User: Which sequence fits this backbone?
């Protein structure tokens, strides 16, 4: 079992963020010792990494809460949870496509600057 301090050192997530995640119901299994201090096990760490990944990819807290609620309901919600993940995956893939599209525009502009600089310097472009 790990303390909140050990988890912050291990994950880089701040203690206030961990407390917030727990308060919002995003970490369904955090235990406490006899004095009320949080104790985290491997399952909690897996949830922390999962929630962090969902947040980093833009999933709103309310959606994660819904997912955790469904998870707690048990195996009868597997299909719905899978659909949630598939939908989120499609959103991420769409964002990635948009990022690559915009990266291509930036790369084009950088190539144009290389050409313009070479014309100004009257040197050849090195590839």
Assistant:
């Amino acid at each position: 079992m790990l303390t909140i301090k050990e988890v912050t050192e291990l994950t880089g997530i701040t203690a206030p963020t961990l407390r917030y995640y727990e308060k919002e119901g995003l970490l369904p299994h955090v235990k406490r010792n006899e004095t009320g201090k949080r104790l985290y096990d491997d399952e909690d760490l897996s949830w922390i990494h999962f929630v962090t990944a969902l947040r980093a990819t833009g999933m709103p807290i309310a959606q994660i809460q819904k997912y955790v609620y469904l998870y707690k309901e048990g195996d009868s919600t597997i299909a719905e949870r899978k659909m949630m993940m598939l939908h989120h995956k499609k959103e991420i893939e769409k964002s990635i496509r948009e990022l690559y599209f915009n990266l291509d525009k930036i790369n084009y502009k950088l190539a144009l600057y290389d050409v313009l600089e070479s014309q100004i310097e009257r040197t050849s472009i090195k590839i």
The CA atoms of residues 28 and 88 lie 21 Å apart. Helices lie at 4-11, 15-23, 42-56, 61-73, 78-121.
